[in-house]
Amino acid sequence: MNWQRRRSIDAKRLKKHNDALALELLRVKEELQTADRHRIGLEVLLDLRGEKIDKLSAQVDQLRRQNQKLDAECEHLVEMVRAAPPANVVLLAPK
Q1: pLDDT in tens, 17-63
Q2: What percentage of the chain reaches a pLDDT higher than 90?
Q3: How far is residue 65's CA from residue 73's CA, in Å, rounded to a whole number?
Q4: Is the dihedral of CA 62, 63, 66, 71 positive or negative?
């Protein structure tokens, strides 16, 4: 009879331990799902950030090219001004 009672106690103890482990497994599974959702959200944000960086880099490149063109135009105008006779000489020239 004592063995029967001991088996019953062991079975209850094992059942209680099994239930505790099942509950812990559910909790860890939920944490994993939450972490997975956060990871997916961060990946989406990272992709958006990468797209924005690419867009801004392209804009910076375009503005640099535009600045180079303006610098070249400015240099050309400076050379034209240097090559042109002074304004007072043009006004004093005989007609």
Answers
A1: 999 999 999 999 999 999 999 999 999 999 999 999 999 999 999 99
A2: 71
A3: 12
A4: negative
Neighbouring residues of 74: CB distance < 8 A, sequence distance ≥ 6: none
User: How many whole angstroms from its chain centre is CA 36?
Assistant: 18
Q: For the chain, how many residues are written?
A: 95
Residue among 66, 63, 67 nearest 55 (CA)? 63
What is the per-residue DSSP string for 40-52? HHHHHHHHHHHHH
Rounded CA separation 80/74 (Å): 10
pTM metric for this prediction? 0.60
**What Å distances lie between residue 69 and 73, 76, 80, CA to CA?**
6, 11, 17
Tokens describing residue 24: 């812990």
